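User: My collaborator sent over this chain with a note saying "see what the structure looks like." That's all I know about it. Can you take a look?
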Amino acid sequence: MTAMLESWERRCAASSALRFLDINLRGIGQVMFQNHPGTGLLFLAAITWGSYAGGMPQVAFGGLLGLVAATQTAIALRVDRAGLAAGLYGYNGVLVGLALPTFLAPSLLLWCYVLLGAAVSVVATLGTANVTKTWRVAALTFPFVLTTWLLLLAAHAFAGLDLASAGGDTEFLDPAETNPLDIAAFMAGVFKSISQVFLKGDAISALLLLAGLAVSSRAAAACALAGALLAVITAHLLGAESALISAGLLGFSPVLTAIALGSVFYQPAPRVLVYAALATVFTVVVQGAVNVAVAPLGIPALTFPFVLTSWLFLLPQQHFSPTTEAAS
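Assistant: Without extra context I'll predict from the sequence alone. Here is the result:
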């Protein structure tokens, strides 16, 4: 695997087109903190499969459009070369590109909206990073959340953007709609908690994402699966709405929290894993709180619960030994 990666690096060094492809693949991988082109390729396969399986191929196109637009914007803004090469300016763009076609009906204006959002996500990434570095925490997916929230809220004011297809995780939790724990629904919730990181409710997509994580980091893959299991169990014990749990809508932010704290920002160790587990459980609570808070606004929570919880648990980092500068 190392030899293949070295060979790929040599080819990228000799070809600007391959280097651009490499940057974009790494940008997809950075959604789950992985700086690896093979991971990005498997993630892209997961996005494509999940979009077509869900009958929404436009979402895959939006993700690619957002990714490329964000990368081009970063190049035009002359961002730092190391961050650009690692894909750190593309991951928020791909998420914006996936989210907007998920919640807005396809139209020419929508694609212009995706281009706008992807470009602004780079500006938001630079700005957020300048602020958060003071506290030695990363921007995470906050630029994606902020940009997408503003674009979706603004869509209510513009007749050219159709919000009829909006849905996802904007619902209130209704304890009256809880059901007994069913193994099939439980496993669906676990896998879809992973795939919903990319706004996909598909088990095959989840397996491709786990494979992509394992290519770069087995610890990250293990944390993702453990985070999904812990999130689903916690949500069931708290009496959350069963349909939301089995759709993975209460687990995707906890999955990201588990990866970030369990394998990226801290060296894996027993104390760290307990700390990450605590943060993962709390992310489920924050997810419920944010869902309720944003529901009247008609927008989804997106990954804000992950961002908020991770920032909270990263601030006291002096109690652990941080890894080298983490991905996103």
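A starting point for your reply to your collaborator: The first helix runs from residue 2 to 14.
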